[in-house]
Specification:
Structural class: alpha/beta
Strand order of the largest sheet: 3-2-1-4-5
Strand content: 15-25%
Number of strands: 5
Distance between the termini: 9 Å
Length: 225
């Protein structure tokens, strides 16, 4: 995901300005969906070097002895250009806390080939309509994939409903857009291992370190960031 560095600096500056203006750091952290520790870091950076220091400095090493040749890099880029958006893995993940005590979920999606995140939508209730809204928004932005891979959750399929199968909204959208829908075998989470790994990274690097968000919108803004 491409992040506008200027918007990122301005976002961090707003938080620092509120803290320097006397607002409790815990309150500001909750409102902006970040942690107290992160806010302390941004404040120290700003006090030392001002606005430019609110941008992340590159961690790229000066020398890369094992770097691939330009020819190989070009070939990889061409393969990625041809194959991304062929198959999307789509799922749900919990663990997004709100200040009112509510625990929200996210509709998530990754491109199977490149692992590019195509969906990261926070929803209050993981209903079929909410899932499909996030899915169709991603298609409008990135294009329609050839295939979609999900588990057997009720939001994704009605094939196993009793007394007889039904077509749920997600299946209908896939059918109408010519998307081949693939389902995992029951109790086979490794089939969607790429998106499960994405969830693990999301928890370890972000969700496990945040305070409850003030609102659904604040949570979405933080996730987007």
């Amino acid at each position: 995901m491409v992040v506008d560095v200027q918007q990122l600096a301005e976002y961090r500056y707003r938080t620092v300005r509120e803290v320097l203006g006397g607002s409790p750091i815990g309150e500001v952290a909750a409102r902006y969906g970040t942690s107290r520790q992160t806010l302390h870091t941004w404040r120290r950076r700003f006090e030392l070097e001002g606005m430019p220091r609110l941008l992340d400095r590159s961690r790229r090493p000066r020398n890369s002895p094992t770097r691939l040749s330009a020819e190989v890099e070009a070939e990889i880029c061409e393969l990625r250009r041809r194959h991304p958006m062929h198959l999307w893995q789509v799922d749900l993940v919990g663990g997004v806390p709100l200040a009112d005590g509510q625990g929200c979920k996210m509709v998530t999606g990754v491109d199977d080939h490149s692992r590019f995140v195509v969906i990261a939508s926070v929803v209050a209730v993981p209903s079929a309509r909410a899932v499909c809204s996030a899915f169709t928004a991603a298609m409008r932005r990135y294009g329609v994939p050839f295939e979609g891979l999900t588990d057997n959750g009720k939001q994704f399929t009605g094939r196993r409903q009793r007394p007889q199968p039904v077509e749920v909204l997600f299946e209908r959208i896939c059918r109408e857009n010519g998307i081949t829908q693939r389902l995992t075998k029951p109790r086979s989470p490794t089939t969607t291992g790429k998106i499960e790994r994405s969830h693990r990274t999301l928890r370890e690097e972000f969700l496990d370190h945040v305070v409850p968000f003030e609102s659904l919108a604040a949570a979405q803004e933080a996730i987007d960031g």
